[in-house]
Amino acid sequence: MAPLPKAYGLTGGISTGKSTVADFFRKWGVPVIEADLISREICQKGKEGWKRIKEVFGDDVFDPDGALNRQKLGEMVFSNEKKRKLLEMITHPLIMEHVRGQIREYFDQGQPLVLVEAALLFEAGYDKEFHGMMVVTCSPEQQLERLCQRAGVGQDKALQMISSQMPLSEKAKRATFVIDNSGSLEQTEEAAREVFDKIKAKKERRTPQWN
Predict the structure, then answer these.
(1) How far is residue 191 CA from its own chain's centroid?
(2) Rounded to the nearest 5°, which phi and psi values hold at 31?
(3) What is the spatial distance between Cα 60 and Cα 71, in angstroms, rounded to a whole number?
(4) Model confidence pTM above 0.85
(5) Residue 201: what pLDDT?
């Protein structure tokens, strides 16, 4: 599939600060499509993702009322690579179908740039669909500490979660732009702004639609 013009992927490792960077771009008027929100939507009771997960994983990952228990599902797949791959085969194509549709809607509205915030764009091979890739990084120590605090898990569990993704160093090598989130919030915003200005300058030469 040809790259989606003016659509950039925003990714990184778990707890490196993707959402923080996404908020900066929103502040500057850039629409951000969140893959995690789409994932939650397609896994609502009765939706396609919900149906397929139920077929593959059975009732153990569902609450008595039929709602998907994301915590139980997460615990299951993070400790079992085969099951994690099965889940990704179910959810990733459905998520990207929705992402593509939302990107087209934004472009039809005249938006010159759209970001897609998603954790596993490289792992799933979808990075090739985008005009470029932004990778948010921080030090391994910061990533581990942030994940433990955010998820309320111990270091062993956090390390297991981190290791389930492509190494952050590899993502950085493949990035169009790397945004360092190891310093202060102001420093991260400055780094993100530099990326935004570079993209903005490119778009002004191609399609002068920026304010």
Answers:
(1) 19
(2) -65, 140
(3) 11
(4) yes
(5) 84
- Quick one: three-class SS letters along the chain? CCCEEEEEEEEECCCCCHHHHHHHHHHCCCCEEEHHHHHHHHCCCCCHHHHHHHHHHHHHHECCCCCECHHHHHHHHHCCHHHHHHHHHHHHHHHHHHHHHHHHHHHHCCCCCEEEECCCHHHHCHHHHEEEEEEEECCHHHHHHHHHHHHCCCHHHHHHHHHCCCCHHHHHHHCCEEEECCCCHHHHHHHHHHHHHHHHHHHHHHCCCCC
CA–CA dist 90, 22 (Å, integer) = 26
Q: Is the pLDDT score of 166 beyond 90? A: yes
Percent of the chain with pLDDT over 70: 93
Q: Which CATH class is domain 4-206?
A: alpha beta
Q: Which amino acid is at 166?
A: M
Q: Which two tokens stand for residue 100?
A: 């593509």
d(CA 139, CA 130): 26
Q: What angle do CA 40, 94, 9 make, to 5 degrees?
A: 85
Find out whether 134 and 177 touch, Cβ atoms under 8 Å. Answer: yes
Place of tokens 């639609």: 209
